[in-house]
Specification:
The chain is built from 10 helices and 3 strands; from the N terminus they run H-H-E-H-E-H-H-E-H-H-H-H-H. The chain has one domain (11-163). The longest helix has 17 residues, at 147-163. By secondary structure, it is mainly alpha-helical.
C-alpha cells in the first residue's frame, strides 16, 4: 500500500459520507412496520420488501436506486462496498406500485434510466423524486385517490427523503 493511502481512505469516510451512512444505519435499525403492504404505500425499500402482500407489486425507489447509489459513491469519492450498496438500497424511499404500471410508466425502469439521467438525478435527488412520483399521479386518480391523498403521499415521500438527508 502506498504511503498515506490508508489515511486518505480513512479521511474519505469522515464528513458528509460518514454522516450519510450513519443516517442509513439508524433507519435500518428502526423496527419494521408489520402487516400486508398496500398499493401506493410509502416506506423504506428494505421494510417494504420484507413484508407480505407484495404479489403483483414492485417496490419502486423514489428517487431511483441508480441515482441513490451514484450520489452515495460521489459522496464517498470511490466505489461503495457491497455492504454499503445494500444499505443505500434498503434505506432508500420506495412506493408499492403495481408491477405493470412500474414496467410501463416509470421513467427510470430498466433501460429508460440512461447514464445521463442517472447523473442528473444524482445531482438533484429532490427534483428526481418529484419527477418519479408525478408519473403515477393519473394512476392514483384512476384508483380512486383524491388530489389531497396524492399530495399527502408525496409529502410522505419527501419526509422519508429528508430523513435520508435530501
Amino acid at each position: 500500500m502506498a504511503k498515506g493511502k490508508g489515511k486518505a481512505a480513512a479521511k474519505a469516510l469522515k464528513g458528509p459520507f460518514k454522516k450519510y451512512m450513519d443516517k442509513l444505519l439508524a433507519i435500518l435499525k428502526k423496527p419494521n412496520k408489520k402487516g400486508r403492504i398496500t398499493q401506493w404505500e410509502v416506506g423504506h425499500y428494505g421494510d417494504l420488501t420484507s413484508r407480505p402482500g407484495r404479489d403483483g407489486m414492485d417496490m419502486d425507489h423514489i428517487p431511483s436506486k441508480a441515482a441513490l447509489l451514484k450520489r452515495a459513491e460521489a459522496m464517498k469519492g470511490r466505489p461503495l462496498t457491497r455492504k454499503q450498496e445494500r444499505q443505500v438500497i434498503d434505506s432508500g424511499t420506495a412506493m408499492a406500485v403495481p408491477r405493470r404500471t412500474h414496467q410501463t410508466e416509470s421513467r427510470t425502469y430498466g433501460r429508460r434510466n440512461s447514464s445521463d439521467q442517472i447523473t442528473d438525478d444524482a445531482d438533484d435527488l429532490t427534483s428526481a423524486a418529484k419527477k418519479d412520483f408525478d408519473i403515477y399521479h393519473d394512476d392514483m386518480l384512476q384508483e380512486g385517490y383524491t388530489e389531497e391523498q396524492i399530495e399527502a403521499t408525496y409529502r410522505e415521500i419527501c419526509a422519508k427523503n429528508r430523513e435520508l438527508g435530501y
